Amino acid sequence: MDELNDQRQQRIKKLDLLRELQVPPYGTRFEATDRAGDLSRLHGSKPKEALEREAIRCRIAGRIVAMRRFGKAAFAVLQDGADRLQVYLKKDKLTEQSYRVCEQLDLGDWIGVGGHLFRTKTDEFTVEVSELTFLSKALRPLPEKWHGLTDVETRYRQRYVDLIANPSVHEIFIARSRIIAGIRAFLIEKGFLEVETPMMHPIPGGATAKPFVTHHNALGTDLYLRIAPELYLKRLIVGGFPRVFEINRNFRNEGISTIHNPEFTMLEFYVAYADYNDLIALTEELFERLAQAVCGSATIVYQDKPINLAAPWRRWSYRQSILEVNQLEASVLHDRKAALEAAKKLGVEVAPDADLAAILNEIFEETVEPNLIQPTFITDYPIELSPLARRKDADPSLTDRFELYIAGREIANAFSELNDPLDQRRRFESQVAQREAGDEEAHHLDEDFLRALEHGMPPTAGEGIGIDRLVMLLTNQASIRDVILFPQLRPEK
Predict the structure, then answer these.
(1) Which residue segment(s) compose the domain that 266 sits in?
(2) Does the pLDDT at position 146 exceed 60?
(3) What's the mean per-residue pLDDT of the chain?
């Protein structure tokens, strides 16, 4: 800490010297007509003679990330976004004041330069600077060993340093932006309307999760950060919008892990007059298109495993997957005692008072999910696990629902929506009973949503896709924290 304070004080002295030179240490505007990456792509392979003949002038700006001084000259490397370009600062090419400014430069400072492209004696592509503009003084040095910074805590807590130290991180978030833009373009092309629904709900709903709670002083009421936009998007279907989607944040008061962050980004979309089979085809088309756009192929590699996103994908019923993966008899599907014994044999821990549906779901999550590497639609979920989904006509104990699994984790959840208001009321009442029995994640009873359903909702299919997990997949990242710019962390000590 003393060393940091010393370096900081030295930089403040340089800041004062800049002011004495009447150079603003925190400048205003600099017209950067060029980008480092573009210059490298357009001219970086040209030989020395071509650069001399063409006399290419440029103006770039960036952060100094490396510097070598040689008497009356210096080489600096400017970082411009994810790209870097060397610049040559020589006393006889600069004004006297600019050279004095050059003497006050530190790693981390921002400068703008103008000059010509050339190659050094060692054949390095470089800008020979004739114009230097000081833009911003960095009072803190970059962390020790910041080149290729690998300390996870520092990378997530100080993402700004991570982005300086690891240009490859820029590419992850550029890809994230392209993925979201691709999703938006795909859905608009398909006739969807993008909407925004409330982030603060008087009644949390639309998913099984524990909400964050806050208080609105003027209204004198508690509000909940939304766990899902589902019930509001369905209200819009009732109101007559046939295709709607929303890309926005959800908040769930749950644990933090490599695949969970309490604040995360979701896509939810709803289609009137459709069922979940229509969404299977739509999802396959969307994912394959995104993979082609971002990765250049429908076959990607995730954590050293090739994954083929080309349609069609496997469909496997929920119950059948449990039986086949674990070689169990069908009796476990209907007999709690048999299911409990199976869980014990498989080493799956379950709560002593867990009902049959909960036991089977624990078995599924522990034994089936990790094996779903290639894209797989798990279908026909039990009614107990799907309080908002439509019952199957052929078997009312099951629902018209799928969850999409890729690389051993859930990526999407979809179903034919329940539009029978009386059935929905009964299921809400069942959820309320579960809440009263101690299940904090069970659904609340939402009277306004029931009122909306009683006005009539057409047959509808809806789907939610976890964008953070999708970005993890398409950028080959093992942790959700690597695809969220500022993930939640414990308070800094």
Answers:
(1) 165-313+374-482
(2) no
(3) 94
